[in-house]
Amino acid sequence: MNAITSAAISMERFDRRYIFLVIFVIVLFPLLMPIGLPIRVSKEAMGAYEAIDKIPPGSKIYFACDYDPGSMPELHPMTIAILNHLFSHNVKVIGACLWPGGPPLLEEALNKVGVQKYGKKYGVDFVNLGYKEGREVVMVSLGRSIPTTFPDDFYGTPISQLPVMQGVRSLNDVAMIVNISAGYPGTKEWVQQVQSRYHVILAAGCTAVSAPEYYPYYQSGQLVGLLGGLAGAAEYEKLVGVAGTATRGMDAQSLGHLAIILFIALGNFLYLYLKKKGKLTRR
Amino acid sequence: MVIDYFVPHPLVSGFGEMLQQWAIIVVAFAYVLGVANIARISGEKISRRSRDWRYQFPLLAGLAFMLTVGVVWGVGEGTLFNDFYLYAYSPMQGTMFSLLAFFIASAAFRAFRMRSFEAALLAIAAIIVMLGRVPVGTLIWDKIPVVSDWIMNVPQMAAKRAIMIGAALGAISTGLKVILGIERNYLGGD
Amino acid sequence: MAAVLTIAVFTFLYKDNPFYKFAEHVFVGIAAGYVVAIEYQNVFLPNLWRPLMAGQYVLVIPFLLGVLMFSRFTGRFNWLSRWAIGLMVGTFSGLAIIGFAQGDLVAQIQANMLPLRAHSLIDTFSNCIIVLGLLVSLVYFFFSKEHKGVLGAAARLGIWFLMVSFGASYGFTVMARISLLVGRLLFLMMDWPASFGIQFLH
Question: Domain residues of chain C, as ranges?
Fold first, then answer.
C-alpha cells in the first residue's frame, strides 16, 4: 500500500473533532478580519423592500414576530433592518408573536430601533401585543377581531387604551403584514390562513432552512417579498443603508460555504480513490 | 371551522369566533400539561435513581425559579424573568442550535457521497446554490448568482410546488377523516 | 453568565461532559418554566381570567376543558381529557382543510397556469420547465400504477427535479447552520467583551 493510499485511508477515518476545529477557525477568521465582500440584492428581497416602501406614512402594519432565540442570528437582523425601514417612513407597528420565546426579542428590537434611534413612543407609534397560543386559530381570529384575540398588550395594558390601536379592529385595517418566521407556526400558515382568506399584502422573512419551500408562494404572488436567512437579512440591510450583524456575518458565511464545498469534494475524492483501490472501509 | 368559511351568517361566524377563543385557552392548558409532564418524569428519574438523575435537580430548580419569578413579578423588560431570558435561556438555545454547523460540516465530509447520477445532481445543485447565495460566488464567476436564482425560481420551485400540492391533498383527506371520525389515533390507546 | 453557559454548551463538541449536561438540564428547566409563565401572563390572564371575572361566564367551559386535560395523569379518568383534545383537534383540522385547499392547492395550481410562449426566450424556456417540472414531479408521487414505460420515464424525470430541489434545500440548510454559528461567535467576540467595556471587534 503506497503512501498516498495510506494517507487517504487516514483522512477518511479523520476524527470529526478536527473537522469541527477547521470550521470554527474558518468561520472565526473573517469576523476578526473582515474582508468586505460585496452583497448582491435578490429580486425576492427587493420585492419586500418595494412593498414596504410604498406604505404611506402614518399607516399601520402588523409585524408578526414568530421566532425565538434559536433562530435569532438569522432573523433578528431582518427584524432590525425592517423596523429601521418602517420607522424611518413613520409607519406605525403593531407587533405580536406566536412563539413563546418571541416577545422579549420583539421588545428589544422595538426599543433599540423605535425608541433609541427614531424617538418613537410606545403606545402611540408602536405596540408589543405579546404572545398568544393557538397558532392558526390565532391567525384566523386576528382576521376577525384583534381586540378579542389580544385584549391586553404584553405588559397587561388594555389595548383599547393605546392610541396606536384606535381604528384597528382586524387585520383588514392594516396596510400590510410582515412576518418573520422560524418554522411552525409561521409563513406557511400566514399564507394559508390569512393571505388566502383575507387577501392582505404579506411579506415574509424566514430561516434559510424554510426559504426554498416558500418560493412557490412568491411566484404565485401570495408573498410580495421573501428574505431567506442571513443572506436575505444582509440584502435588506444594504437596501435600507444600515450595515448590521448580517452584513458583518456574510464574509464568514462565504468562507463557511467554501469550506463545506471543499469537504464535500474532498470526501467524494477520497471515496472514489479508495473505491478504485479496493480499500474502502465500511462505517 | 369549515362551515364558518363558507357561510358568512352572523350566527355561524359568532359561533366560530367563540370556538376559536376556546381553542386558544385549551391549547394554552395543553402547554402547561406538557411542562407538568416534564416535572413528573424528572421526579420519577430522581426517585428511581435512573441514569443522570442528579441533573434533574437543576432542571427542576430552573423550572420552579422561572415559573415563580414570571408569575409573581411579571415578564416585561427590567424584570428578573427577562434577565434570565436574556442571559440564560437565549444564549443556551442559540448555542445548542449553532452546534449544528459543526455536525453539518462533519456530515458533508464523511457521509455526502455521489454514488449515483441523482446524488450527483443533488450535490451540483447544492454547490451552485451555496455559492450563489453568498458574495464569494460572484467573485468566482459573476453568472453563478444568476444560475442559482434560476435554479431556485424554476426547477426547485416546480418540485416544491408538486410536494406542496401532494401534501395539501394529504392534509385535506386527513382533516376530513378526523372530522368524520374515521381517524381516531389522536385520542390515544385505550 | 451568558458566556459561561455558551462555552459550557460548546464543550460538547469535544465530548459529552458534566458541564454540558448541567447546562443542558438547566436550559430545559428554564425553558419549561418560561413557557408556563408566558402562558399565564399572555393567555390565561387576558383571555380567560379577566373576562371571566368581568362576567363572561361562558368561559367556564374552556376553563373546565383545560383542567380536564390534567386527567391524563390519572389512570381511571384519563378519558375525560378527550373532550379537550377533541375540541383542539377538530378546530385545527377544520382550519387545515380550508388553509391547505385555498392557500396551497387552488392557488398553486392557478399560479402554475403559465403561458408556454412568453415575451422572451428565457421566460418561455423557464415557464415550460416549471409546467413540466410540476407534472413529472406529481407523476413520481402517483404510486397506484407501476412506474413503467412512459409513466416510468416521467417519474424518472420527476426524481431529477426533486433531486435538484433537495440539493437547493441542502444548500440553504448549510447556510442556516453556518449563520447560527456566526451569531454565537459574534456574541462571544462582540457582546461579551463589550459588557466589560472592551471593544474586541471593530
Answer: 115-202
Label residue B190 by pLDDT band (50, 70, 90).
very low
Instruction: For chain A, report the end-to-end CA distance as a whole number of angstroms.
Output: 21
Residues of C within 8 A of A213 (CB-CB) are 169
Closest approach of chain B CAs to the CA of A234, in angstroms? 10
Q: Which domain holds residue A8?
A: 3-33+251-277
Task: Give the phi and the psi of residue A200 in degrees, each rounded to 5.
Answer: -85, 150
The beta-strand segments (E) located in C85-154 are none
The number of beta carbons lying within 10 Å of the beta carbon of residue C41 is: 23
- Contact residues, B window 45-74, toward C, CB-based 8 Å cutoff: 52, 55-56, 58-71, 74
Dihedral (CA of C64, C66, C67, C70) sign: positive
- Read off the pLDDT band of B109 (50, 70, 90): confident
Q: Tell me, yes or no, whether A283 lies in a domain.
A: no
Decide if B57 contacts B46 (C-beta within 8 A). yes
The three cell numbers locating residue A275:
473505491
Residue A124 CA to residue A168 CA, distance in Å, equals: 13
Digit-coded pLDDT (tens) for A99-118: 988 999 999 999 999 999 99
A100/C38 touch (CB, cutoff 8 Å), yes or no: yes
B159 in Cβ contact with C133 (< 8 Å): yes
Q: What is the ipTM of this complex?
A: 0.88
Selecting from B77, B105, B156 the residue whose C-beta is nearest the C-beta of A19 gives B105
User: Is residue A150 in a domain?
Assistant: yes
Answer yes or no: do A137 and B23 touch at CB < 8 A: yes
Between A232 and C12, residue with greater pLDDT: A232
The residue among B49 and A179 whose pLDDT is bigger is A179
The closest of A265, A218, A216, B161 to C162, measured between CA atoms, is B161
Mean pLDDT (whole number) for A184-207: 94
A239 and A260, same domain (yes or no) = no
Answer whether B4's CB lies under 8 Å from C47's CB: no
The 3-state DSSP class for residue A42 equals: coil
Whole-angstrom Cα distance, residue A27 to residue A254? 9
Entry pTM: 0.90
In three-state form (DSSP H/G/I as H, E/B as E, the rest C), the secondary structure along A119-159 is: CCCECCCEEEEEECCCCHHHHHHHHHCHHHHCCECCCCCEH
